[in-house]
Amino acid sequence: MNAHSKPDLRELSYAEAIREAMDIALTNDPSVILMGEDIGVYGGAFQVTGDLVDKHGTDRVMDTPISELGGAGVAVGAALTGLKPIFEFQFSDFAALAMEQIVNQAAKVRYMLGGSVSVPLVMRFPAGSGTGAAAQHSQSIEAWLGHVPGLKVVQPSTPEDAKGLLLAALEDPDPVMIFEHKILYKMKGHVPEGHYTTPIGKAAIRRDGKDVSIVATSLMVHKAMQAAEQLEADGIDAEVIDLRTVRPMDRDTVLSSVRKTGRMICVYEGVKTLGVGAEISAMVAESDAFDYLDAPIIRLGGAECPIPYNPELEKAAVPQMPDILAAARDVVKGRV
Amino acid sequence: MNAHSKPDLRELSYAEAIREAMDIALTNDPSVILMGEDIGVYGGAFQVTGDLVDKHGTDRVMDTPISELGGAGVAVGAALTGLKPIFEFQFSDFAALAMEQIVNQAAKVRYMLGGSVSVPLVMRFPAGSGTGAAAQHSQSIEAWLGHVPGLKVVQPSTPEDAKGLLLAALEDPDPVMIFEHKILYKMKGHVPEGHYTTPIGKAAIRRDGKDVSIVATSLMVHKAMQAAEQLEADGIDAEVIDLRTVRPMDRDTVLSSVRKTGRMICVYEGVKTLGVGAEISAMVAESDAFDYLDAPIIRLGGAECPIPYNPELEKAAVPQMPDILAAARDVVKGRV
Amino acid sequence: MPDTIQDTNLPYAIRAYSPERLREALKKMYLVRKFEEGAEDSYMRGLIHGTMHLSIGQEASSIGSTMALTDEDKITSTHRGHGHCVGKGADLSKMFAEFFGKESGYCRGRGGSMHIADPSKGNLGANGIVGGGLPIAVGAALSAKRLGTGAVTVCFFGDGANNEGAFHEALNMAAVWKLPVVFVCENNKYGMSTSTERSTAVKNIAERAAAYNMPGVTVDGNDFSAVTEAVDAAVERARNGEGPSLVENLTYRWRGHSKSDRNRYRTKEEINEWMGRDPIPAMAKLLMDHQIVTEDDVAAIEAEANQIIADAIEFATQGEDPKMDEVTRDVYTPESAA
Amino acid sequence: MPDTIQDTNLPYAIRAYSPERLREALKKMYLVRKFEEGAEDSYMRGLIHGTMHLSIGQEASSIGSTMALTDEDKITSTHRGHGHCVGKGADLSKMFAEFFGKESGYCRGRGGSMHIADPSKGNLGANGIVGGGLPIAVGAALSAKRLGTGAVTVCFFGDGANNEGAFHEALNMAAVWKLPVVFVCENNKYGMSTSTERSTAVKNIAERAAAYNMPGVTVDGNDFSAVTEAVDAAVERARNGEGPSLVENLTYRWRGHSKSDRNRYRTKEEINEWMGRDPIPAMAKLLMDHQIVTEDDVAAIEAEANQIIADAIEFATQGEDPKMDEVTRDVYTPESAA
Ligand SMILES: Cc1ncc(C[n+]2csc(CCOP(=O)(O)OP(=O)(O)O)c2C)c(N)n1
Ligand SMILES: Cc1ncc(C[n+]2csc(CCOP(=O)(O)OP(=O)(O)O)c2C)c(N)n1
Ligand SMILES: [Mg+2]
Ligand SMILES: [Mg+2]
C-alpha cells in the first residue's frame, strides 16, 4: 500500500483504478450504465469518470440534472428493470438529499416484496475531508448507510481494492455503496490488469502484529500504517486491519486479531459518536474476544463538529498519525 | 412509569402531554409556530396536535404541503429569522427526505458561520414499529441524527418527560430532534401541570439495582422495567437506565452504573448494527469503567432487516421482554 | 392495447376496445370495489392489522389507466394502490393473503397493503412514500429505452404527491431524456386532509406539465372512457418515442384517508355529491348503452366478482403464517448474502 | 429602496435611483470583480486552499438584484455568492479574511468562500448545497409575514439549482402562503458542465413560474437597469403582500465552474462573445450617458475599489489563525452546549 509496489508491477492511481473498473464493466456488460452530475464531458468533479464518455457515449455515461433524489430514484428504477447503474454522487454529502431513495426504496424493496426482486445498483460516494471544502463537502457518512439492512457498504483504501470492490459490487445482485476517499484519488499503487474482484465483507490485515490491533478504515489505514512503522522503534508491534467493508462487517478477522493482541484501537474519520468505530468496538465488547482484552478499546474518530474550512482546523477535526501513535503507546503501556 | 402514579396525581397520555407542552409554548411565546403535514384540522396522523389549530389558528398551526425537504428548510429559515418552529414529521421515516436540511443546514449553519447565528428549531419524529405499517413507516433512525454534531437528540419514554423535554427543547437555542415512539402515544402517566423542563443530556435511573445495568431507550425502557421486575424472582437486581438523550449522551450516569454493577445490557429498537447501543457500549468499553466489567457488554437491538408487516414477524424484528430476561440471566450467571 | 373501431361518434372506449376487454374492465372495477370492501370488513373484524388506504370511488381511474398496457409494460403505484394492482392483472387471492400477512401473499407477508407488487406482470409495486414511485418509474422508462424493449411505464401518483420534490425532478428528467413514461395523477382533491387549494399553487395539476414541456391534460377521472382516451393517447405517444405526458384524473375517495380519519376537512354534502358520481354504475351504463352488456350481464359480473373475493378471502384465511426464524430472509439476494 | 424620478423615457435605474446610489452600485460591481480577481490571484499563489466559484461577468445581476433591499431585508445566496455579499453590504476585509481562514473572517475561518454570511446585514449566507437556500429563503419570508417586519427576502439560485426538488417545494409553498420572497435565478447557461438544454425541460427558467401561479420574467442579466427594473418590481410586489415572483437574469460566468474545470463543455467563441458583453463597462457607460459620472469618475471609482481590495488583502494577511483547541467551539450556542 505504501510504496509496497515492486518495479515490475503496474501502478495506477485510485481514481484511475476506479475508472478502469468502470471501463471494463461498460465494455463487458451492455446493461451497465453510469449516471451522475458532470460525469460526462467534464469527467466528474474528481476526474474519476474522465474520458469514459468519449469511449462509451452519452447513453452509457449519462450526465444527470442536479437532482440527487430523482437521479438516485431513476437508478433504483433502472436497476429493478434490467440495467445495472453505477450512480456517482458528486460529493457524499449530497447523499443527504437522496436518503429516501437509498434507504426507503433501494435497501428495502427486495425485503418488502418478499424477495421477488433484486436491486443491482452501485453507488459511489466521494467522501471525507482534507480538501478545504468545508462542512457541506467533507463529511463521512458511511455510518448512516452502515446502519441500513439491505445495503452493503464498502470503503476501499487502495487502488487495487478500489477496482476490485467496484467489480465485486457489480457482480452483487444487491445495492452496494462505495465510499471513496477524495484524498486517495491521486494515490498510486499496484493494480492488476483485467477483471478481478475483491470480496465484499472481508477485512484485510495490512500488517501483522501482536501487541495491539489497529482497525482502521479508508484514509486512516494509511495513517495507521505510518504509525505502526514508527511504533516499531518503541518496540510496539501493531497489527493493522483495513476494515474495507462496513456492512457486513468482518467479525472473524477483527475478533481473531483482538484475541491475539488483547488491545484494540479503532481509527475512523467520521464523527466519533455513533461512527463506524462504535460498531467495531461494540462488536468486540459483546463477543468472546472481550475476555482477551487487556485494556479499554480506544476509538479515534472525527471531532464532534462539522468539518471546518481553515486547513489547520480541518486537520484538527480528524484523527492524525500522532494521535494513533499516542493512543497505541498509551494502550500498550497500560496508561488507559 | 408503569402504574407508579398515586391517585391524586393528574394523568395524561404521552400524546396529550406533548400537546399540552405545545399549547403552553404557543400561549406563552408568540414566536412559536407548529408546522407539519395534516397537523391542523386533521389533528396530526397520531392526533398529537389534536385541536390546537382551533385555539391558535392556522397561522400558528400550519399544515404544509407534502414537501418534507422544503418544509424542513422553511422551518430552518424561520428559525434563523425570529420564529421558533416545532416541525412535525408525519412518520420519522420521511425524515430521509429532509436529511439535507436537517444535517447540512440546521446542524451546521451555526458552526459554518463561526457562531453568528443559532437555529432554535424543534423537530418531532413519530418513530418505531408495532403499528403494522411495515418497512417505510416503522423505522428508528435516531442513530443517524445522533451521529451529527450540532443537533441534540432525545427520546422521551414517559408522558412526563415527553412534555418536559419538549419544553426544554423550546428553551434550547439549538436544533433539538425529538423521537417519539408511536406505541407510547396512548400510554398514560403522571404529568405535572404548567411549565417545567426535563434536562436534555441527562439519563434517568428508573430502577436502582446492583447486579446488571440495563440501559434502554424509548419503548424499550418499559420492556426493561418489566424484565427487571421478573428478574427479582431470580434474585437478580437489575438497574434500569432510561437514556433519554442520544446526543449528548449522559456518560456519567451510565459509567457510574456500570462501575457499580459490572455488567451492561443495552436495549434499543433501532437496527443493532451502528445503532444507539453501539455507542453506549463503545463509550463504556473505552472508559475507566471497562475495568469494572465482569462480562461482555450485551446489545439487544433491532434485527438486521427492514420492519416486516406480519404482526408476529414485526415483533420478532425488535427486542422483546423475554430477550432482555434471557440476556440478563446469561450475563449475570456468566454464561456469556 | 387499443383495438380499432373507427366510428368517431362512439365514445373512445367503445371504439378502442373489444366487448371482451370492456366486460373485463367492468369486472376489474367491481373487483377493486369488492376487494376494498372486503378488506375494510376484515379490518373492522380485527383480522387485519396496520392501516389501509381505500380507493373506493376511484375505480375508473385505476382500471381505465391500465387498459392499454401489456404485461411487458410497467406501473409504479402508491399507498392507495389496490386498483392499480387489479388493473395490472394481479391475483386477488395473493393480494388478500398479503393483507392477512401470509406466506402465500404477494410479499410473503412482509409488505402488507402498502407494498403489494407483482413484478412478473410489470407491477413494480405500491409505495409507502408519497412520491417515492415517481423517479422509479422514470428509471423503468430509462431501462425500456436503453434496452429497446418498447415497454411503457405508467406512473400513478396523487395530487398531494405533486408537491414533493421527487415529482419535479422525475418529470424534468423524463422530459429531458424523452422517456416512455406516462404520469397519471389521481387528483382526489385532498392529500390526506389538505385540499389542493391549500397545498398547491395551481388549480389543476396538469398545468404543471408546461414546466416540463410535456402535454398535460385534465379529465373526468370517474368517466372510464375519458380516462382511457387520455391515457391511451399518452401511452401511444410514449410508445412512439415522443416522450412523457401528464394525465390528471379528477376523482374522489369516498372513504377517509385511512382508518384514523375523522373526515373533518370536508363536508358530508361533498362526499354525497361524489358518491352520486359512482364510476362503476356509470361504466355499466356505458356498456349497456352500447349493447355490450345487459343488466343481467352486469349482475352476473358483479356476482362473479363477489365470488372471486370470497374465494380470495378463503385462500388468505387458509394461508400459512411466515416462519418466525425467517425474519431476516430476503434482506439480501441469497447468492450474495453474507 | 428606489427613489422617484418620473421621466419614463429614461432607463429604469436612472429614474429609480439617486446618483449616489448609482455610483455606489458601480463601485460595488468593481468590488466584486476585483475581489474575485484578488481571490483568484491568491489562490494561484497558494495562499488559499479549497475551491472557489467566481462570478466574474455576473456583477450586474448580483448588484442589481440587491439595490432595493434594506438591511432588514434578507438574502440567501449560493456557492457563487461573492457578488450577493457585496450587494448586501459586506465588508470586503472580513470576506477576504474568511477566504484566508482567519479568525477575523466573517465565519472565523470555519466557513470559507462557500459559507460567507453577514446576518447583521440580513445576509443569511452562501450555501454549499445547490438549492439549499431556496426553502430557507421561504422560511425567512414566513418569519417576516408572521412577525410583521415588512422585510422581503431575495433568494438567489442558479439555473442548475432549478432542477432540484427543493426549488419546486420552495416555490410552491411561497406561492400557497403568499410570502414576501423574490426568487432570482442567475441563469449563466450551465450548471457546472451541464447546459440548460441538457438539464432543463424548458427554455427559460422563468417559464416555470406558471407552475406556481407567480409572475415570471426573463431579463438581460448583464444589463443593470433591466435587472433592477425586474427585481425591484418583484420586491415591491412582495412588500405589498402580493406574494412571490421569479426573476431570471440571463448572464454568463467567464471563468470555469471552479478550479477543476477544463472548460470542455463550451467554446472559446461563446466565452469571448460574453466577455464582449461585460456588465461593468456597460454600467459605466449607462451612468456616463446620463451624466451621472464622467470617465474620470469611473477611473476614480475603479481605483477606489482597487484600494479597498488591497487593504482587504492586507487585513486578511495580518489576521490571526483560529486556535486549534477551539475546533469544536460554536457547534452549539454556549448557554446550551452540553
Ligand atoms: C413522503 C411521505 N410523506 C407523507 C406521507 C404520509 N401520507 C401518506 S398518504 C398521504 C396523502 C397523499 O395524498 P395524495 O398524494 O393526494 O394521495 P391520496 O392519498 O389522496 O390518494 C400522506 C400525507 C407519506 N406516506 N410519505
Ligand atoms: C446538492 C448539490 N449537488 C451538487 C453540487 C455540486 N455543484 C456545485 S455548484 C454546481 C453547479 C450549480 O449550477 P447552477 O445552479 O447553475 O449555479 P452556477 O454554478 O452556474 O452559478 C454543482 C453541480 C452541490 N454543491 N450541491
Ligand atoms: Mg389525493
Ligand atoms: Mg449556472
Keywords:
heterotetramer; A: 336 residues; alpha/beta; Rossmann fold; 2 domains; seven-stranded mixed beta sheet; five-stranded mixed beta sheet; C: 338 residues; five-stranded parallel beta sheet; two-stranded antiparallel sheet; 12 helices; 42% helix; 9% strand; binds thiamine diphosphate; binds magnesium ion
Report on this model:
The complex is a heterotetramer, with two copies of chain A (336 residues) and two copies of chain C (338 residues). By secondary structure, chain A is α/β, with parallel strands linked by helices. Chain A has two domains: 10-190, Rossmann fold (3-Layer(aba) Sandwich), CATH 3.40.50; 204-332, Rossmann fold, CATH 3.40.50. Chain A is 35% helix and 19% strand. Chain A has helices spanning 14-28, 52-56, 68-80, 99-106, 109-112, 142-146, 159-171, 219-233, 251-261, 276-285, 311-316, 321-332, and strands spanning 11-13, 32-36, 61-63, 84-88, 122-127, 152-154, 176-181, 188-190, 204-207, 212-216, 238-242, 245-247, 264-271, 298-302. In chain A, strands 3-2-4-5-7-6-12 form a seven-stranded mixed β-sheet, with helices on both faces. Chain A has a five-stranded mixed β-sheet with strand order 9-11-10-13-14, sandwiched between helices. Chain A has a two-stranded antiparallel ribbon with strand order 1-8. In chain A, β6, α7 (159-171) and β7 (176-181) form a beta-alpha-beta unit. In chain A, α1 packs parallel to α7 (159-171) and α3 packs parallel to α4 (99-106). The longest helix of chain A is centred in the N-terminal third of the chain and has 15 residues, at 14-28. The mean pLDDT of chain A is 97. In chain C, β2, α7 (165-176) and β3 form a beta-alpha-beta unit. The mean pLDDT of chain C is 96. In chain C, the strands form two sheets. Chain C has a five-stranded parallel β-sheet with strand order 1-2-3-7-6, sandwiched between helices. In chain C, strands 4-5 form a two-stranded antiparallel ribbon. Chain C is globular, with a radius of gyration of 19 Å. In chain C, α2 (19-44) crosses α12 (295-318) and α5 crosses α12 (295-318). Chain C has a single domain, classed as Thiamin diphosphate (ThDP)-binding fold, Pyr/PP domains (Rossmann fold, 3-Layer(aba) Sandwich), CATH 3.40.50.970. Chain C is of the alpha/beta class. Chains in contact: A-B, A-C, A-D, B-C, B-D, C-D. The structure holds thiamine diphosphate (2 copies) and magnesium ion (2 copies). One thiamine diphosphate (TPP) sits between chains D (53, 79-80, 128-130, 158-161, 188, 190-192, 257) and A (37, 66, 68, 90, 94, 97).
